[in-house]
Design goal:
disordered C terminus, 26% helix, eight-stranded mixed sheet, alpha/beta, FAD/NAD(P)-binding domain, Glutaredoxin, single chain
Length: 521
């Protein structure tokens, strides 16, 4: 059937499903289409970092995700000669293997095929599986027209939308149809994931890890109740490969008889799109940036894309923001994608350096230990995860705002505009992050004073903040719905219209709006 909807989401992976849940929470009706007939059965991305878990906490999903994930002690990588040898190097995944003081949550190690059903159930908006986008037009009337083809029945339907959000992967059909180029190395190498069963679970429980990296490929436990995956460069003739035999030889134990369940070939891509959209079509996740898997960054960067973009779409569609606000999506997120791409490539190089160093030691009959060349860096990237700083017209900097910097792997909490609001326990036992939602949050030691300054049409809540983070007794932090600080006042603002002016500037509002009912296009 033909349909009209405020937002059409193309792609049913974690980013598209999260965007669907966020937009529903923010009062925007969506339709999600996915060309596959069902959710992916492959494990694929496996690490939900601490920032992504904060987003899922906001959606009320954190406990459900954690309940089906591995215990924290599996948040570790072990490098060894064969699967059954001892470690020659190991490192913890920061924010995964243990709680950290900088966040009220802990990340999780869980397979993507375990995560996606939870995200699908998080919203009631319609989903069409087996529907492939085959035509795309931006009409003079301001709508986007998409023609969808039923991949199995042959029928077609037309969907008209105010906006289209493309989360359709590294080989994005939408990106290609828009003619958007990419920068970066591009396709790096083809890998194969072999999902198999073998009697390894009791052994791994005594030596827990999320990744066992060996000279014969990487082994990954998939679920707490069992199941394994083997990641290896794709052989020259994969269609004729003896996958059970290859897995058995890689395990290094002839007594093992693994049962191969699935085999998937995939390409490691490394690029960032030159633009994150065109007109009313916007790219997110792997459609906007493909980040190699070393370090577990890719999916999490895409989830942060959705968090950044969806409140802006909601503001425009619900009438309290101007369309120019959407321009800040690319301004804020594209530098983050480049930064994460550089780190992932560096992670891959460090991994190879460690393995090469170990092989040299073995050839020389040296010691059985090797120092990690990335000591406290690999998977210890809280600066990338929590230290992102935005600079755009949706952030009002002040004289004390530091220049945009690359925190890299180190994270130093700061309440400067553009940064994520730091986690701080409030008097009622909640985190400052728990005050955030489908609204702007004003955190201040003097709520009564600021209550007198509020003006419509923006969704705004005022919460009490202990006198901390460099804020005076009458100061305040204006936090955007994505948790980043949009403006701050060290003490009382210079005039009574300061809050109104800040919200106007951040949302690119032109004034004179009255907010329509939630979800109205």
């Amino acid at each position: 059937m033909d349909a009209e909807v405020p937002v059409l989401i193309v792609g049913g992976g974690p980013v598209g499903l999260t965007a669907r849940a966020l937009l529903e929470r923010w009062g925007v009706r969506t339709l999600l289409v996915e060309k596959r007939r069902e959710l992916s059965p492959f494990p694929r991305s496996r690490l939900v970092n601490v920032r992504s878990m904060e987003i899922f906490r906001q959606l009320g999903l954190a406990e459900a995700i954690t309940a089906r994930a591995f215990a924290p002690e599996y948040g570790r990588i072990r490098l060894r000669d064969t699967l059954f040898d001892g470690d020659f190097a190991t490192d913890a995944m920061a924010g995964i293997n243990a709680p950290i003081p900088e966040s009220p949550v802990i990340g999780a190690l869980t397979s993507q095929d375990r995560l996606e059903p939870t995200l699908l159930a998080a919203a009631d908006a319609q989903v069409l599986f087996g529907a492939e986008l085959v035509e795309l037009r931006q009409e003079p009337d301001g709508l986007v027209t998409a023609v969808l083809a039923d991949r199995h029945g042959g029928g077609k339907a037309r969907v008209r939308a105010r906006y289209l959000l493309a989360a359709d992967g590294a080989n994005s059909t939408v990106r290609h149809r828009l003619g958007i180029d990419t920068t970066g190395p591009g396709a790096l190498r083809s890998f194969t994931t072999v999902v198999f069963d073998a009697d390894l679970d009791g052994w791994s429980a005594r030596q827990p890890a999320g990744v066992y990296a060996t000279a014969h490929g990487s082994f990954l436990p998939l679920y707490p109740e069992g199941g394994w995956a083997w990641l290896v460069p794709t052989p020259d003739d994969p269609d004729r490969a003896d996958w059970p035999g290859l897995v058995s030889r890689a395990l290094g134990d002839a007594t093992m008889h693994p049962e191969v369940l699935r085999v998937q070939h995939w390409m490691v891509n490394a690029f960032v799109a030159e633009r994150f959209g065109h007109g009313r079509v916007l790219l997110a996740g792997d459609a906007a940036h493909a980040i190699p898997p070393s370090g577990g960054l890719g999916m999490n960067v895409g989830l942060a894309d959705a968090h950044n973009l969806c409140w802006k779409l909601a503001g425009v569609l619900n009438g309290w923001a101007g369309p120019d606000l959407l321009k800040t999506y690319e301004t804020e997120r594209q530098p983050v994608a480049h930064l994460n791409l550089r780190q992932a490539v560096a992670n891959s190089q460090l991994w190879v350096q460690a393995q090469n160093r170990r092989q040299e030691q073995l050839r020389n009959g040296g010691a059985t230990q090797v120092e990690l060349p990335w000591s406290q860096r690999y998977f210890a990237q809280l600066g990338l995860v929590l230290g992102v700083a935005y600079r755009s017209t949706a952030v009002l900097t002040d004289d004390d705002t530091p220049p945009q910097d690359d925190q890299g792997t180190d994270y130093v909490p700061t309440a400067a505009p553009g940064h994520r609001m730091p986690h701080l326990w409030l008097t009622d036992g909640e985190s400052t992050l728990d005050t955030l939602g489908e609204w702007f949050t004003l955190l201040t030691p003097d709520p009564a004073y600021w209550e007198r300054l509020t003006t419509p049409p923006w969704p705004l809540r005022i919460e009490a903040l202990p006198e901390a983070l460099g804020c005076g007794p009458h100061g305040a932090f204006l936090v955007r719905p994505d948790g980043h600080i949009g403006a701050r006042w060290r003490d009382r603002p210079p005039h009574r219209g300061a809050l109104h002016d800040a919200l106007t500037a951040i949302t690119r509002a032109t004034g004179g709006w009255s907010a329509p009912p939630a979800g109205t296009p």
